[in-house]
Amino acid sequence: MNEVKPTIKSGIIPGLKAVWPICLGYIPIGLAFGVLAQKAGLHPLEIGAMSLLVFAGSSQFIAISMLSSGAGTIPIIATTFAVNSRHFLMSSALSARLSNVKKRILPLFAYGVTDESFALNISKFRDGNWDINRALIVNHTANITWIVSTILGGYWGQFIPPKAFGIDYALIAMFIGLLVFQLRGQKFVITAIIAGVLAIILSLIVPSNLHILLASIMAAALVVVFARRIK
């Protein structure tokens, strides 16, 4: 019998079943971003365009924060590029699972890679029974949810007082949640602790938000070196 090749249509249901928790998380965070962006002076259409073109929650929050503080264009671009450089690492990890995918599809897939979709797709690829079509559904369902949520937040922002409901804490809470789900063993806990300590130290030395990126890379490298020596 001829093997039936998976298609986008066949990947819709599995993809939606996998991605719905991410979408539930994106809705309040997207609304929070929309509110903050509206308070910074952006129109809902500008907020939607930013979410469409950038699609990176952490960078968008940082950009809005810098805009509110009066930062210039070049510092904002440089900072968001540094924060988003982690996507090089995520893309490298995913590339090993996509070696047989047609090149014209890869840009479409790469556009939708975020921290959450990466964590979900990489775990699904490792478990098996996962393909590019299901991964695309995950990426772009999350993408649409994020864009719509941020636009709605922009419209509702005019009715919400600044810093109400702890909205400014939304991104921090999201990353704490992501961290907790990644702590699946002793080495992950140690890596997180080292990264946290290094980030605090480097924040006193390194300008902007580069200390976060440097601390993450240094912590991961140190744990890998020590683990190999122990073995």
Structure description:
The chain is built from 11 helices and no strands. The model has no long low-confidence stretch (mean pLDDT 81). It has 2 domains: 8-170, no CATH class; 183-231, no CATH class. It has helices spanning 8-39, 44-53, 57-68, 73-84, 86-95, 106-111, 115-127, 132-156, 170-182, 186-203, 210-230. By secondary structure, the protein is mainly alpha-helical.
Helix-strand sequence: HHHHHHHHHHH
How many discrete domains? 2
Q: How many H/I helical runs? A: 11
Mean pLDDT metric: 81
Query: Got a strand count?
Result: 0
Percentage of residues assigned to helices: over 70%
Ends: how far apart?
47 Å
Q: What is the secondary structure topology, with strand pairs?
A:
Blueprint: H1 8-39, H2 44-53, H3 57-68, H4 73-84, H5 86-95, H6 106-111, H7 115-127, H8 132-156, H9 170-182, H10 186-203, H11 210-230
Helix pairs in contact: 1-3, 1-8, 2-8, 3-4, 5-7, 10-11
